[in-house]
Every structure is written in C-alpha cells, then in structure tokens.
User: Fold GNAT family N-acetyltransferase from Dyella jiangningensis.
Amino acid sequence: MDIRTLCADDLELICRHREAMFRDAGKGDDVLRPMTAHFREWLRPRLANGSYFGFMMSDGGTVVAGIGLMLIDWPPHPAHPLQDQRGYVLNVFVEPDYRHRGLARALMRLADEEFGRRGIGYAVLHATDKGRPLYLGMGWNGTTEMAKTPEASPEGHGG
Assistant:
C-alpha cells in the first residue's frame, strides 16, 4: 500500500468517500445528494488552505482508503486543560473490497501520529455502528456529547 497526504485534487474523491460512508450507514440519496453538494463547497477552501488534511492509501495507483483530519477550536476542558484545540477525525473510508485488512486501523494510527506532530493531545470523532468496534479497540471512549436539531432551525441544518 502506498500512503500519501491529501491535496486539493482529492476534492471529488473525498466527497465520494464521504457519501459512500454515509450510504453504508443507511442514509439515502434524498439526504446524501444535497449534503455532498454542500460539503463539496465547504471542503474546497479548507482542502486548499490545509485546514482539512489527512491521508489516502493506494493499491497499484488506485485509492482504496482515506481519512480526514481537522483541528477544531475548543476552549480548555478537563480532558485538555492547557490546550484550546482538539483533533477531529472524519470521513474514514475503506473501499468494500479492501475492508478487514487493517487499512482503517493504519489510517487511525497515522491520525494519532499527525495529531501528535501538531501538538494535539486530545481528539474526537463520531463513529458509525460499523466503525465503533475498531475505535473502541484502539482506545477511543464514548463521551457525554448529545445532539439536537433546534426547533427554530431551518430543515436540514442540525446535527
């Protein structure tokens, strides 16, 4: 497997991976199509300026897995009392024919290394049901986070 960092030319590939990840989690095209269109425009400047970063894995020149990473502004917290940022892991995806070969685990190790290189001592992610066993097995723990779409919010603008 070849490993490389993300670049601006990966925009469409990241969008495809993200959509496939959510489709695997049971989401339908009625949500995924508009989400992907909006995500594409959200991602474009962040990928270009490096605030969205990560890795791709290739087999024989074909990308088969990827991971996205970000640093998010966060006030000091008991989990990181001297830091005002958290690492954020998103869009972990492995092509179906390459699953159960350790690629997602390898990507998560790269994420740990990259966060460490950037001086980040605490990271979060939102796990799908399929991904949860991997993350738990790598030392990730559940948090107290909860989510809600506010009643006054425009449709589709919630978590």
Notes: The chain has four helices and five strands.
